[in-house]
Amino acid sequence: MTFKKRDLIIFIVITFAVGFLGAFTGLKVLQPSMNTTEQVEIPFVKDSGDNQLDENLKTIKEAYELIEQHYVGDVEEDQLLEGAIQGMLETLEDPYSSYMNAEAMERFNEQIQSSFQGIGAEVSMVEGKVTIVAPIKDSPAEKAGLRPNDHILEVDDEDLEGLDLNEAVEKIRGKKGSEVVLTVERKGASKPFKITIIRDDIPIETVYHELKEVDGKKTGIIELTSFSETTAKEFNDSLSSLEEDGIDGLVIDVRGNPGGLLDSVEEILQSFVPKDIPYLQIEDGQGKNDKYYTNLKEKKPYPISILIDEGSASASEILAVAMKEIGYDIVGTTSFGKGTVQQAVPIGNKNEESTIKLTFYKWLSPKGNWINEVGIEPTIEQEQPEFFYSNPIHIEKTFKQDDTNEEIKNAQVMLSGIGYDTKRKDGYFDKQTKQTVMKFQKDHDLKETGELDEKTAYAIETKVIEAIRSGEKDLQMQKALEELYK
Description:
Number of helices: 12
Strand content: 15-25%
CATH superfamily of the domain at 109-203: PDZ domain
Low-confidence stretches: 1-48
CATH architecture of the domain at 109-203: Roll
Largest sheet: 7 strands, antiparallel
Oligomer: single chain
Mean pLDDT: 85
Structural class: alpha+beta
Helix content: 25-40%
CATH topology of the domain at 109-203: Pdz3 Domain
């Protein structure tokens, strides 16, 4: 099938069949918003004249009738059909191809609004585990400390093993004000831990900009949290405003940005990639390759840096790799690695239409590189401070001097990160750690016991989140600004 770019609704996604603006979840999942009326009609089967297909379908029909007529228990016809479709998709071993029945599609479309309710995190299925790609800016998930690559094992003590991503998301989503307890597995933590989150309204604001003075130079900073239907316009408005202010340089921040609409990132790239190099290539299953170009005559007259991290995925990576390959610096850590394009195709009864989201294409960089499962390496690598990656402190008992425990280590890392240096980060609760804890307790109106109890742990974690959100210790941003004019 020939790929005609403007005739298809192209989805640059990282996950499953849930919507970019929150899906039918309280999770924001890495797929652009869509309207079922915009889905393209594509026949699944072409008549090739081969009778083998008819024989195979006859076998499926026989199995269906056998179960329906003779199975000893109750049989739901819709479930049989959905199970057959899901079974075919599972054999592809593609986490981005999935099925939504009519009910799921209805919930999906209800969520495509300017906001949604839930915890506010992008998720994917990685090696059979529901995985956080990135929490949404200012969301309950971010405030609770969820991080990219966290695995959600349980929801309210119910095991998610064996569920597909849609089913898992259904359990995580919920109404504003309701509570959900997630059991989380995190690299570096010795065992899974629980995080309690109060669901809330999650507004979809995708573009933030500010003007900073760096070494006497006016520097624009534009943060993109996702690529929605309005992102390109908001970005271009922000860029115009900054350029009117006479910026000498620009930083574009797509850290934690899971992607979204292809059209959105395309429109943004129109302002940066000159016409002599494609900003994007699309390749189908037969190896046919289409290249896409801008009409831009030349690059911007000022330096530009792009910020990425492990939560930058899909459309974010399209932006980052295009900018990298035309000579701009990429600062941060290696991105997620999502290089495929999905198409949503309606199937079944028109009055009760279901949808299959299937991987149709690969997207390639301007130079033809495929970043899938590899990601984009920064030109300037920069990690965040150690405490940005610290694990939550779980207090099953109060820790005192001479105790040794991983939770003490977590507390030591956090305290040192927010200005209360414990002098050690090995999990041993020595005299210095006790004195540091007492100083923290005194400064925050807590009982000065020098012991690490639940209230003290909560206060430490709260201050860590505040420190991260303030940006004052954002080494990646500092590095981007520092290197911009070199």
